[in-house]
Each structure stands twice: as C-alpha cells, then as structure tokens.
Amino acid sequence: MIFGLGVDITDIARIQAAQTKNSQFKARVLTAAELAIYADLSPKRQAEYLTGRFSVKESFGKALGTGLGQVSFLDIEVLDDELGKPVVTKNPFAGRALVSLSHTDTLVMSEVILERGTA
C-alpha cells in the first residue's frame, strides 16, 4: 500500500552555486558512501550526482510528509545497484522506498514512493 509520494525538480546550477559558496555543502547532503562515489566523478557528473541526491532526499521528505525538517539529508542514502539503478539503501521509514531519477543538462527530477505492508 502506498504511504506517500514525493516529487522534486532541482536546478543543477543552484546546487553548484551552493557548493561553490560553501565547500562543506556536499558533506551536509551526501553520506560517507555517497561522498566516496562523488569524489571519483568528473566535475560535470559531480554536479549531476550532488543535485540528484539532493533532489531525491527532498522527494523523500515530501513522501514521508515531514519535509526535511524532521529528517536529515544524512538519514537518507541513495546508491546505484550493479545496473546503475538508484536504490534507497538507508532511510528512517519502516517500509519500502522506491526512487527514480532523471536529468537534463540543467535540471534533475526525482520521485520517491514509500510503501507499507509489502513483502
């Protein structure tokens, strides 16, 4: 049964500007595992990756119904599986979290569906 649905669209340039202004911005958004992946990416992919994770975590807060006020960016972790599909690997929700990400050169869109009572 679907508990919540969250959608977010984030401008890549806005997240790049936040990272440029505050070099610790990425550490506030990305978990240690996410930061390790980020460090190995090209600058263009870093911007897309950081924006993507930011967007997913915003979507997660919306799906949960609390926003990010009661849930921290670091409470949620999204890593890619062996096929490159993003998977929520850590989160505070007692159920299943499904995620989808897409981007253009300038925008990232994410969607999170939270399910309860599923196997």
Automatic annotation (TrEMBL):
One of its GO terms (molecular function) is holo-[acyl-carrier-protein] synthase activity. Its EC number is 2.7.8.7. Mg(2+) binds at D8, E58. Pfam families: ACPS. Transfers the 4'-phosphopantetheine moiety from coenzyme A to a Ser of acyl-carrier-protein. Its cofactor is Mg(2+). Belongs to the P-Pant transferase superfamily. AcpS family. Residues 4-93 form the 4'-phosphopantetheinyl transferase domain. Gene3D superfamilies: 4'-phosphopantetheinyl transferase domain (3.90.470.20). It catalyses: apo-[ACP] + CoA = holo-[ACP] + adenosine 3',5'-bisphosphate + H(+). Keywords: Cytoplasm, Fatty acid biosynthesis, Fatty acid metabolism, Lipid biosynthesis, Lipid metabolism, Magnesium, Metal-binding, Transferase. It comes from Loigolactobacillus binensis. It comes from the Bacteria. It is found in: Cytoplasm. This is Holo-[acyl-carrier-protein] synthase.
